[in-house]
Design goal:
Helix content is 54%, strand content 7%. By secondary structure, the chain is mostly helical. Strands 1-2-3 form a three-stranded parallel β-sheet. A two-stranded parallel ribbon has the order 4-5.
């Protein structure tokens, strides 16, 4: 089979997300808003990366199990349509694991040790979690298998994720060199990730407790917004502010109407609008933004089996595609024993 002999005329995209907690606005504007647009243009495979979650959360696997349906709820509520894209659970497509095993036989250890995320995350969590494990060191090989098992054309990534995709491309090149052409070298689909700071000015993160979650009620969000960090140089109400130096204004930039944003800029820079007033205006914008997302989520929650039906259908489609690729990979490595099959028939 030719590398480009795909089952659809549309180019294929693969991406995934770890089920480690409820999604927040940073996830929405950093990832989901792009996925929703891509599903109308490409043959998209989006997976819940529960095996990847185990690389750092191996001591609490029950929590991963709890987060899986919540993650899919957030995805669909945010606009992913299972009739337009394939939504599936990584661990239910065993072909990922076998392809990872095959890739691990020829992936040099040095490639994994130089991975920037390995050192960065290991350093960040040192003392909190023991990440000196084979699974954590080797997760880029699993990531390569997750992607290449579907032989995609493109992978949506931000600029900072390019080194990770390049490792996948190196693994594809090495396989093709050793065993013959099979895997395409997927190209980066650079996405403009709209980054939001956390409520306290740090990176928005579940672990920091500085995020607004997509599933939170306005009652829960209100005290968070009212205590939010703003322009630290604006000490008094009568002092003029600078929206460019304000931790709150990027939120307005993404969810507040343009006319109101212009009014906020004038009011802030001329000291006609206080930070408390600005926060109240943001709450109004958040209510308008979250209402349709939460309405879709509530409708899905009323059908508790619906999420598992979506995953089951996606799992079956993913297994069909992954199985075809794995059969070709096994043949390239001379692991298809037709003589044994004939012997078993007898």
């Amino acid at each position: 089979m030719n590398i480009d002999d795909m089952s659809t005329s549309r180019q294929r995209i693969v991406s995934g997300m770890r089920p480690t907690g409820p999604l927040h606005l940073g996830h929405y504007f950093g990832v989901l808003v792009n996925w929703v647009e891509l599903q109308d243009q490409y043959d998209c495979f989006f997976f819940v990366a529960d095996w990847h979650a185990l690389t750092s959360e191996y001591a609490s696997p029950t929590r991963i199990r709890e987060f899986v349906p919540q993650l899919v709820l957030d995805w669909v509520a945010a606009g992913l349509d299972p009739t337009k894209c394939t939504i599936f659970l990584q661990s239910q497509v065993k072909e990922h694991a076998e392809l990872q095993l095959l890739f691990s036989m020829f992936t040099p250890l040095g490639w994994l040790e130089r991975n920037p995320t390995y050192k960065e995350v290991k350093g960040e969590l040192e003392g909190a979690k023991d990440l000196s494990t084979y699974g954590f060191l080797g997760y880029p090989v699993l990531m390569a298998a997750d992607i290449l098992i579907y032989r995609p054309h493109l992978v949506p990534v931000g600029q900072d994720q390019l080194p990770h995709l390049e490792l996948t491309r190196e693994i594809a090149r090495r396989f093709n060199h050793l065993y013959g052409s099979l895997f395409p070298e997927p190209q980066a689909k650079l996405t403009e990730a709209q980054k939001l700071p956390g409520l306290d000015g740090r990176k928005m993160s579940k672990s920091y407790g500085n995020a607004v979650h997509l599933s939170e009620s306005l009652e829960d969000v209100t005290p968070k917004i009212m205590s939010m960090l703003t322009d630290t140089n604006r000490m008094r109400r009568k002092d003029p502010g600078n929206p460019d130096h304000c931790n709150l204004f990027p939120y307005h930039g993404l969810i507040t109407d343009e006319q109101i944003r212009r009014e906020i800029i004038v009011g802030c820079t001329q000291a006609g609008l206080g930070c408390v007033d600005c926060k109240k205006m943001l709450l109004q914008s958040l209510e308008r933004f979250l209402e349709p997302i939460q309405a879709r989520r509530k409708a899905l929650e009323a059908e508790p089996d619906r999420i598992w039906e979506i995953l089951d259908a996606g799992d079956r489609k993913a297994r069909d595609q992954a199985g075809k690729t794995l059969a070709l990979a096994r043949a390239k490595l001379n692991l298809e024993y037709s003589e044994l099959a004939a012997f078993n028939v007898k």
